[in-house]
Amino acid sequence: MKTRVALITGGFTQEAEVSLKSADFVQSNLCDKKYEVYPIFININKWYYLDADGVEYEIDKNDFSISLPKFGKIKFDVAFIILHGIPGEDGRIQGYLDMLRIPYTSCGALSSAITMNKSYTKSVLKDIKNLYLAKWVHLFEYHQARAYDIITTHLALPYFVKPNAGGSSIGMSKVTQDSELQRAIDLAFTAESTGAEVIIEEFIYGREFSQGIYTNLQGEIVVLPASEVITSRDFFDYEAKYIPGLTEEITPADLSDDQCTRIEAILKEIYVQLNCKGMVRVDYFLEKETDRFYFVEINTIPGQTKQSFIPQQVRAMGLTESDFYDELIQVALKGNQTII
Prior knowledge:
Its main location: cytoplasm. The chain is of the alpha+beta class and 340 residues long.
């Protein structure tokens, strides 16, 4: 009997468009001899299954099931979450599935909630050996009227200003002079569905990388090859991420043996400290002057188009996306504990 997979996609933010593309790619790489895949679309107004003929069937939220004319009530064995932003990366969908005892392929509810909050994540990771953190300020809506004074008092130019709970660089600005700061603050505070919290970090001059980590069927934490990001933009913003030709991504990245050894140990410790499950992706800088690794952020539902970092890294490791996604599902069903 085939395993019934709910492929959850969509979301409540601008990242929904990317989620749909990611879900299409995942579905195209799941073996149809092994899995029955049901795309489940979630938006602010409704949850539904869309069949191959374009017919919508509403999700029964009491037990996360659908009723189909030919097959009756369908329940799912596992959920493959490809839901970027809210409610996929902040722990909401995970908490719901936990209550229904439906296994899923991502981090748990608490880990997802913490990692969605960039400032809280940095606080958890601050004591990891060989990992450095750019100096930062975390502002709530209460601080908005005096945000300019708080930032200029505690941080030195240039800054990165971004929503504390956003993704895909939406609402993010690089500020090189204080006259640009207020506009950047306003943009970050008003980004849709990001909780009216803002994080401001001092800029780190260095090379930028992104690297995936996951748990295999043996319970081992596996670090994928790194990708280096080289963009013609001022920084790796939304356009650089999603408009072809603006960014060069080199996988595997050109890192020395020593650098590879250090970052692998760091990434495994990040995965453990945040109690991660499934696949995650960590973005970081390698500072030019010091050879220090600086944490940027972690993504617990990373993009999964053919051009996305994780598929690039899976291929660079000599795996197929089909085998990789199959392993994620089998680990979720098995519920393995991780081993460093």
